[in-house]
Structure formats: structure tokens, C-alpha cells
Amino acid sequence: MRRVTLFSTVLAVLISTNLLAQRTTDIKGGKDYPLISRFEGSVIEYYKEVKWDDYQVPLSMMVTTEEKGRFFEKNETVEGKVIRIQYSTSPDNNPAYVYKNYESAFRKAGFNTLFQGKGDDELGDEPGDFCHTFYGDIVQKFGFAYNPQGENHAMIVAKTKKDNNNIYVIVYISGFSNVTLVTQDVIEVEAAETGHVTAQSIDEGIAVSGYVSLDGIYFDTGKATLKSESAEALNTISEYLKAHADKKYFIVGHTDNTGVFETNIKLSTERANAVLNELITKYGIASEQLRAHGSGSTSPVENNSTDEGKAKNRRVEIVEQ
Where does 199-320 sit in CATH, by number? Predict the structure, then answer.
């Protein structure tokens, strides 16, 4: 995974006598997160690692209703290690400028941006109420050097993967008369154990949609060779097929959009046939019950612009005929 690198063309030394006084050196123990460089010229005012906690990741602007008050209409609660870093930089680097740098850096590093916005209209509320709702009380479980409630604000929520673990990054940028603050939260979510298809999940998927993705089927990269780890899922699939011997099914292979279209059609067909042949020769499924088909990259379930989306698009499905 490429590192997010931030650059600033403004080089200034902050001399503050007002609201906040920017440090000249990082706070003791402070360090950048390995995948994300700091905005050039900024210093670390606060650093804290929490080994495990939950975190509500905002995925949309804040909304306000009479019934529920202020809340994020779309959000995702994740759990994992939380790292909060609060940086300060010169007010010459206003929030919109710092925001633009982060936006560009995340994009270049291949992060998937889940939500972003600047100003009250795009974030849904003015800084005071926004911070109160998102961060809670000033002294809360992850702490601050300074309350990030400024005069102007911007936010980017991004996601990437490292060692198969999801990494969420929430960057909130706020402006003051003599400093710009960047409050950066990183949540390292450990990958869940790889799931396998179950008889119940096949039953439910077929009943609702007429098909289901066969989790737990693994191939060598770029090949149609089944890995030994697929045995558990194949056994479950065979048991389901035997219990529904009066019905016929397609085994359908899918790929992401990497490479040549014709090659992907060929690979997806070969993988579908590999599953079909394994079920027939090793698990005793009647050949007339199954047919193989390859769809290549023509039926994605996620956008192929991200590694996560590509991974979900590389799949094998069972489809009722």
C-alpha cells in the first residue's frame, strides 16, 4: 500500500499570542501513522493510542430532525485499535487548503474516500454543533490537546487495507485565528476470520435472489487451480446439491476488470468448470445437475476502482436454473 504523502507550498512559522500556541517540536512520544505523512510544516500537539475501542465512522453529512436531533444519517460502527494524532500548522494554511492536500494525497495513495466535505453546507452544521455531536465532550475517551471546534472546518473519511486489515482514517480540519488544527483518527480493524458458505446461506440466497456467492472458494492467483482451503466450502455445497437433487444449477465464475476482457471470460469459465468438475468427481454430484458459465467482469457487485471492490468481484456463484 502506497503511503499518503502531503505537501505544502506555504512555509511559515506560527507566532501565537491568542487562542492556541503552536509547538515548535512534536509532543514527546508523538509520531506519524506509517501510511500517512503529516502536512508539511505541522507539528504534533497530541498523540494517543487506544488498544481497542468502538468508533462510529461518519459516511454522510450531519442531519438534524426534531425527533432525533443531530446525527449522521449514514455511519458505520467499527472496532479496533484507535490512534488519535492532533497536528497544528500555520493559519496561512487555511482549512480549505489543507483539505485539498489531504484529498489529493489520499487519491494518489489509492485510498477509497467514503465521505468528504468542507464548510457548513457540505458537513451539515456549523463547527460548534458538529464537533459536539461527533466528538462528544471535550474530554472524552480519545482526548485532545485542543478542542477542534474552530471557525471553518472540513473533513475526509477514507479507507484502505494493510495486511488484509481495514484501515479507516478520519481527518477533521479546523481553523482558528492563529493556527489550523488537524485532528486525525486512525482505526485499525482486524480482519474477521474468513467465512465459508453454509447450507443455510445457500438456501436463503436461492430463495431470495435465485443465486448466492460461494464464500470459501479459493484459487491460485490468475489461475483456475482450486486451493486445498476450498474443501470445507465444497463439501457444504455438495451436501446442499444432494439435498436438492431434483433441481439444476449453474456454477458461474466472475472476475474483476483487471487485464483483457477475453482473458477474463476464459479465466472465469475455467474456474467455474474447476468447481463443477470437483463437485462431480470428488463429491459425487450428478453431472446433469450442473452447468458451468463464465461471465468475466460483466457483472460486478462493487466498483472496480478499489482493491476491496475488485476482491468482491472475483467470485463464484451458484445460480438456480
Answer: 3.30.1330.60
